[in-house]
Amino acid sequence: MANTKSAKKAARQTVRRTEVNKGRRTRLRSSVRKVEEAIASGNKDAAAAALKEAEPVIARSAQKGTVHRKTASRKVSRLTKRVSAMGAR
Protein backbone atom coordinates (compact mmCIF):
# COMPACT_ATOMS: atom_id res chain seq x y z
CA MET A 1 0.00 0.00 0.00
CA ALA A 2 1.15 3.52 -0.78
CA ASN A 3 2.59 5.41 2.17
CA THR A 4 3.65 8.83 0.91
CA LYS A 5 1.33 11.51 -0.35
CA SER A 6 2.83 11.35 -3.86
CA ALA A 7 2.52 7.55 -3.97
CA LYS A 8 -1.15 7.77 -2.99
CA LYS A 9 -1.76 10.30 -5.75
CA ALA A 10 0.08 8.09 -8.26
CA ALA A 11 -2.12 5.15 -7.22
CA ARG A 12 -5.27 7.24 -7.82
CA GLN A 13 -3.99 8.35 -11.22
CA THR A 14 -3.22 4.76 -12.19
CA VAL A 15 -6.76 3.67 -11.39
CA ARG A 16 -8.20 6.53 -13.43
CA ARG A 17 -5.84 5.93 -16.36
CA THR A 18 -6.58 2.19 -16.33
CA GLU A 19 -10.31 2.89 -16.74
CA VAL A 20 -9.70 5.25 -19.64
CA ASN A 21 -7.36 2.80 -21.34
CA LYS A 22 -9.87 -0.05 -20.95
CA GLY A 23 -12.42 1.98 -22.86
CA ARG A 24 -9.94 2.85 -25.58
CA ARG A 25 -8.79 -0.76 -25.91
CA THR A 26 -12.41 -1.96 -26.13
CA ARG A 27 -13.17 0.61 -28.84
CA LEU A 28 -10.04 -0.49 -30.73
CA ARG A 29 -10.94 -4.18 -30.61
CA SER A 30 -14.55 -3.52 -31.59
CA SER A 31 -13.53 -1.51 -34.63
CA VAL A 32 -11.06 -4.21 -35.73
CA ARG A 33 -13.75 -6.88 -35.21
CA LYS A 34 -16.20 -4.94 -37.41
CA VAL A 35 -13.66 -4.88 -40.24
CA GLU A 36 -12.95 -8.61 -39.84
CA GLU A 37 -16.67 -9.43 -39.86
CA ALA A 38 -17.15 -7.38 -43.02
CA ILE A 39 -14.23 -9.22 -44.64
CA ALA A 40 -15.74 -12.57 -43.62
CA SER A 41 -19.11 -11.59 -45.10
CA GLY A 42 -17.38 -11.03 -48.45
CA ASN A 43 -18.77 -7.53 -48.97
CA LYS A 44 -15.83 -5.40 -50.10
CA ASP A 45 -17.72 -2.09 -49.86
CA ALA A 46 -18.75 -2.79 -46.27
CA ALA A 47 -15.21 -3.91 -45.42
CA ALA A 48 -13.72 -0.74 -46.93
CA ALA A 49 -16.21 1.44 -45.04
CA ALA A 50 -15.48 -0.38 -41.77
CA LEU A 51 -11.75 0.02 -42.34
CA LYS A 52 -12.19 3.73 -43.00
CA GLU A 53 -13.94 4.07 -39.62
CA ALA A 54 -11.46 1.81 -37.81
CA GLU A 55 -8.28 3.50 -39.01
CA PRO A 56 -8.61 6.72 -36.97
CA VAL A 57 -9.65 4.74 -33.89
CA ILE A 58 -6.52 2.60 -34.17
CA ALA A 59 -4.30 5.64 -34.79
CA ARG A 60 -5.82 7.49 -31.84
CA SER A 61 -5.25 4.57 -29.47
CA ALA A 62 -1.58 4.56 -30.50
CA GLN A 63 -1.31 8.33 -30.11
CA LYS A 64 -2.76 8.13 -26.61
CA GLY A 65 -0.36 5.31 -25.68
CA THR A 66 -2.94 2.56 -25.22
CA VAL A 67 -1.13 0.42 -27.80
CA HIS A 68 2.34 0.82 -29.29
CA ARG A 69 2.48 2.86 -32.49
CA LYS A 70 4.03 0.00 -34.43
CA THR A 71 1.28 -2.36 -33.24
CA ALA A 72 -1.32 0.09 -34.51
CA SER A 73 0.50 0.50 -37.79
CA ARG A 74 0.70 -3.28 -38.21
CA LYS A 75 -3.03 -3.70 -37.53
CA VAL A 76 -3.96 -1.05 -40.11
CA SER A 77 -1.54 -2.49 -42.64
CA ARG A 78 -2.79 -6.07 -42.29
CA LEU A 79 -6.45 -5.07 -42.41
CA THR A 80 -5.84 -2.88 -45.48
CA LYS A 81 -4.03 -5.75 -47.18
CA ARG A 82 -6.94 -8.12 -46.48
CA VAL A 83 -9.55 -5.64 -47.73
CA SER A 84 -7.53 -4.97 -50.89
CA ALA A 85 -7.16 -8.70 -51.55
CA MET A 86 -10.95 -9.06 -51.61
CA GLY A 87 -11.10 -7.43 -55.04
CA ALA A 88 -8.55 -9.87 -56.47
CA ARG A 89 -10.77 -12.88 -55.78
Keywords:
mainly alpha, 89 residues
Structural class: mainly alpha
The helix fraction, in percent, is over 70%
Largest sheet: none
The geometry reads as: elongated
Number of strands: 0
Q: How much beta, percentage-wise?
A: under 5%
Report what the structure shows.
- By secondary structure, the protein is mostly helical.
- The protein has three helices and no strands.
- The radius of gyration is 18 Å and the shape is elongated.
- It starts with a helix and ends with a helix.
Could you give the topology of this structure?
Blueprint: H1 5-41, H2 44-63, H3 69-88
In short:
With 89 residues, the chain is mainly alpha-helical.
